[in-house]
Amino acid sequence: MAVYDKIRLMRELHQFSQEDMAEKMNMSPSGYAKIECGDTKLQYDKLVQIAQIFNMKVTDLVDTENGVIFCMNDNSDYIYTNYNGNTEGLALEIEKLKLQLAHKNELLIQKEKEIQNLNKIISLLERKS
Asked: Where is the HTH cro/C1-type domain (predicted)?
C-alpha cells in the first residue's frame, strides 16, 4: 500500500475530513488533497507531522514491500531502518472489523424498531384496558 493510501486510510479511520487534516497541518485543503492523491512528494517533516496527528510512528506510516525504509534527513545523514510489519494482514483485519461494526449497527437499528413496535403494542393494550 502506498504511503498516500495509508494516510487516507488513517484519516478515514480517525474520521477526519481532508479539511480537518489541512487545518491541523497549517496548509490549504487542496495542498493536503495532493498528498492523498500522491501528487506531492512528501518531505520527512510532513511525514512526522502526519504521524503525530495519528499518534503513530513514522515507520508505521511508511514502509515498503520488503520492509526497508531509507530516509535522508536535513544534515545529509542517512537513516536505515528495518521494519517488518504485516500491513496486508492489518488491512484485512480492519476490513473484517468494519464489516462486524456495520452488522452490529444494522442489528441495533433492527432492535430499535422492535422496541418502537412493542411500545406501540403496549400503548394499544393500555387504551383497551
From this structure: 7-61
Residues 104 and 44 in one domain: no
Are 70 and 77 in contact by the 8 Å Cβ rule? The answer is no
C-alpha 74: how far from its chain's center? Answer: 29
Instruction: State the amino acid at position 53 in one-letter form.
Output: I
Q: Model-level pTM?
A: 0.50
The C-alpha cell that represents 105 in the structure block: 449497527
Rounded Cα distance, 19 and 11, in Å: 11
| pLDDT band at 95; cut points 50, 70, 90 | confident
Collapsed DSSP state (helix, strand, coil) of residue 98: helix
Confidence of residue 64 (pLDDT cuts 50, 70, 90): low
Q: What is the mean pLDDT of the chain?
A: 82
Number of Cβ atoms within 10 Å of the Cβ of 49: 17
pLDDT of amino acid 86:
61
Helix (H) or strand (E) holding 82: strand 78-82
C-alpha cell at 50: 502526519
79 with 109, same domain?
no
